[in-house]
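S., here's the first fold you wanted:
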Amino acid sequence: MTENLPPMAPLLEAASLMNMARSTAYRLAREGKLPFPVKRVGGRYYVPRAQMLQSLELTSGAVDAE
């Protein structure tokens, strides 16, 4: 079902999957310390969904089950 999702995910979605506070996610994104690339677009942070899921070792089935 992840094929129906946009290719980029908001940073807060990644933070939620990592059980990480919003402020920590933004700090790590600014410092370039997240395990996947982060793109800033118009003041918002986005991550490539496929790379995020791969680096967190999540399968599409695990995400769909939530």
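And the second, which I think is the more interesting of the pair:
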Amino acid sequence: MPTSSLGEPIKKQLLHGLAGLASKAFTFALMLSACSSPYTVSINNTAVFDPQDRLYTGEVRSADLQGCINFALRQQKIESEDQLQVLACANSEVTDLANISRLQNLRFIDLGKNRISNLTPLERLDRLSGLNLSDNLIEDISPLLRIQTLRSLNLAGNNSIPCRDVAELTRRMGANFTAPNACKP
């Protein structure tokens, strides 16, 4: 019978190696079976993995916004992003709203206490009626003027917005508009 360089029969080495491989395969299978438990993995209360495959894998650029969308779908027990009408992403470190317009049925969005500066992606949300953008980095509110359905808006804490730009929103929304602190009479 052939032997290895250490004098141990090759057959014995193969059996030993196969036993080790079988042990590793069993351990791996055990780990996989634990994955079948219905636990959702989250980071900072934002779902990032759901074993029941309920997470929307859309095309928004911001991982923080995507995590918020995933959480909203799960929390509201919604199967499709087309059904999403309310999105609460306050204090979620969102910086980019690119492709949020894919969520065409949104009626209310809470984006307070984030780091948003560009509002252009919001102007294509034709059903949006309520929006909280308090405490962000907004300077240009012109995209908001193009949302005809917008009835309630909070811009408190965005003191870089020129007060002259706030007048049209004040006229249109009245008491349903909270102007930046620097623009209050």
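Why I say that: Confidence is low (pLDDT under 50) at residues 51-55. The domain at 63-183 is CATH 3.80.10.10 (Leucine-rich repeat, LRR (right-handed beta-alpha superhelix)).

Talk tomorrow,
H.
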